[in-house]
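Feature request, filed as a ticket because there's no other form

It would be nice if the structure record came with a short human-readable summary line next to the tokens. Right now we just get the raw output. Example of a typical job, pasted below so the devs can see what we mean:
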Amino acid sequence: MRYKRAGLAGLLTTALLSAACGGDAPATDTATDATDAAAAGATDAAAADGDAPQIALVSKGFQHQFWQAVRDGAEQAADELGAEITFEGPDSESEVAQQIDMLRTAMDRNPDAIGFAALDSQAAAPLMDEAASRDIPVIAFDSGVDSDVPLTTAATDNRAAAALAAENMVELTGGEGQIALIVHDQTSVTGVDRRDGFVEHIEENAPDMEIVDIQYGGGDHLESTNLATAIMQGNPDLVGIFGANEGSAIGVVNAVKEQGREGDIVVIGFDSGQAQIDAIRDGTMAGAITQNPVGIGYETVRSAVAALNGEELPETIDTGFFWYDAENIDDEEIQAVLYE
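Raw output as currently delivered:
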């Protein structure tokens, strides 16, 4: 199996993830130096203004454990750096208008900085321009924004992560047969990149595999279950399904169990959460890609504080990703980035 690919920021934040998940691994010197510098700047800014920096974070939702883990990382960074954060998101990952309203409300509170994970990479462009006109630094996280305003994006390299999922699909199926995808959406950068990264790898490396369908379930468990069920019923020779986020993957698992196809269809997921962990342990799911959600939240707040201190930021902060399955799920490195 192909197991992992971790970006520099992912490696630097693994210790932070372990601490957030109850571990006791120390931070690396590099990460500690960066955090200490940001904390010093935040303290100076707070002293000058009489208040802690206010950072408003607008995520894609709360319906998945992933976003709660991102919030945990953001809160950890805020505590360490002397900042105060708000963290909110829409009811589901299909509620683009609700998310835009939340971003509007957050901006009306005049925060010192904003972190934003866009459901629709284009819908927020006017508000991004307004933030720039008001000199409010914007940090994108998890999913990029179709705008030059964000100073950096703290995220997984989703295209490469999905390619790793596809690589394992090829290996587990013998590189032959019909497969399908359940993706959360085709409007966010994460949805598009995970779809395209998976499809491109299959097309370039598995000529004997056929992608028979790609459906979009909005990350909703029930909708994804219905879509996966319909695909299986319409394609009885199906050998594998990729679920491109937590809700999509859980929906696929549910459909496979309901149809009695455990062991017959290779299921590969994305993210973690208790349901996917259980599915890997019981053999329904072959494996999944996990991100560093705590690291994403941490790097978002750390970058916001750095921006407020006038520091230059890289265009992207790659927080890393890992393949995990029944063979390595209990490894210390994997346990540090899983969430329940």
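Something like this underneath would help us a lot:
Confidence is low (pLDDT under 50) at residues 7-40, 42-48.
The first strand starts at residue 4 and ends at 5.
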